[in-house]
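Hey all, quick one. A colleague (J.T.) asked me to put the NAP job into the tracker so the inputs and the structure tokens live in one place instead of scattered across chat threads. No bug as far as I know, just bookkeeping. Sequence used:
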Amino acid sequence: MSSNGNAKHVKVLVLGSGPTGYSAALYAARAELSPVVLTGMQLGGQAALTYTIENYPGFPEGVGGAQLGELFQKQAEHFGAVTEFDLANEVDFSKRPFKVTTDSGEYLADTLIVGTGASPNHLEIPGEVELTGRGVSYCATCDGWFFKDKKVVVVGGGDSALEEGLFITRYASSVTIIHRRDELRAGAILQSRAKNHPKINFIWDTIVTETIGTEKLEALKLKNVKTGDESTFEADGLFIFIGHTPNTQMFEGKLDMSELGYIKVNDKMETNVPGVFAAGEAADPHFRQVVTSAGMGAAAAIQATRFLEAESE
Ligand code: NAP
């Protein structure tokens, strides 16, 4: 890392500290490119908020999400990656080195690897924002403990809803999973675990239309999408797991993206801007697994290394 005025000049700048970012950093560090990782808001990314990860190879008993994140970080730093607790706000790709403005200053980067991941979607119903942290949550690992012996509702029918719902059964007296269809999207193992759990029950074909409560959540207004019937359901907690949106707003108009905001990459993780690579959930609407994000991060770093080598030939 060198300084150019107040800006720090790096060969490889990695945005994001999840599995994508630290895998990219590991590979770039081992190529002796001294990568700098800007952590973003959440060190370790979404994976670090997961209680147990059971499908990352090499951990037959599963591994804690936070623990895996620490291992990723430690391994990348062991080979020379540097972590900066900083958040990128703006990028300028009009010339190289690329300029990246952060909370604490400016970076000039010969190559950039975007591993900014994705954030949980909101239901966008009345009361949701006001009661976030007062009964409404998007993270069972973070907030499950607050619902000891309480009645909890989980919205969603995917892997996240079931996995997090199962986790909340450690604390809650009951977990009701409300899904807008009568068929779950989640994988078979999670489905059978949830369906057989004595504390979990399901409400099908139903959406939550409103939260009730001022100081804290007290109940939810529900609507059956098939019959139109409306009802009120008492609940102390509402955990929402209805998918994610990629954290790519910063790149709008600067990188080619899909309609849903995923950065378009080719099979070498190259974006439409030479020297800018993207990997993990910022660029992947299909797989969104820790192992696939880590793999994409590694691929992006290998390609960034080749890009820099080709330039210096
Ligand atoms: P997801 O698979 O996209 O599922 C989102 C769920 O929310 C769907 O059931 C969807 O209903 C429902 N939904 C979406 N918008 C809604 C709305 N406005 N109101 C009510 N319900 C709504 O998201 P995810 O569960 O977060 O999983 C994301 C990815 O991570 C997936 O690829 C998943 O396999 C992966 N993941 C894997 C694991 C694991 O392997 N253990 C754990 C967590 C996540 P519909 O089904 O009707 O569309």
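Adding what we noticed when we looked at it: The chain has six helices and 20 strands. The chain has two domains: 2-119+244-312, 122-240.
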